[in-house]
Amino acid sequence: MALLQIAEPGAAPESHTERQIGVGIDLGTTNSLIAHFDGTNLNVLTDDTGQASLPSVVYYGKSQTLVGADAELQASAEPGNTIASAKRMLGRSREEFEDDPYIQLA
User: Model-level pTM?
Assistant: First the structure.
């Protein structure tokens, strides 16, 4: 049984027996990775340096956005523009963070 099936508008969805593709996302507090299954092989995606595990960090600078290890390097220099450990915020309300000294909310 397909959990999510996507088709073009007006097109008949494919039978789940015809196509067996899966994607897995491990959104970790410290590191994240993505893998996909093409029906035969399981493939873990890697970054441009060949690393499969990517630090769960994003940096939003004035002229660039960085992810992973590159973003991690900016965390100490510009902590206000760096997001790390975002997973621990999922499912929580804004009010729960108002008194947290480690989180600055915009």
Answer: 0.64
Question: Is residue 70 in a domain?
Answer: yes
Report the CATH number that the domain containing residue 53 is assigned in CATH.
3.30.420.40
Report if residue 103 sits inside a domain. Answer: no
Give the pLDDT band of residue 75 (cuts 50, 70, 90): confident
Q: SS3 string of the chain? A: CCCCCCCCCCCCCCCCCCCCCEEEEEECCCEEEEEEECCCCEEECCCCCCCCCEECEEEECCCCEEECHHHHHHCCCCHHHEEECHHHHCCCCHHHHCCCCCCCCC
Residue 19 identity: R
pLDDT class of 91 with cuts at 50, 70, 90: confident
Measured distance CA(76)–CA(59) in Å, rounded: 11
Q: Does a structural domain hold residue 27? A: yes
- Range(s) of the domain holding residue 58: 22-89
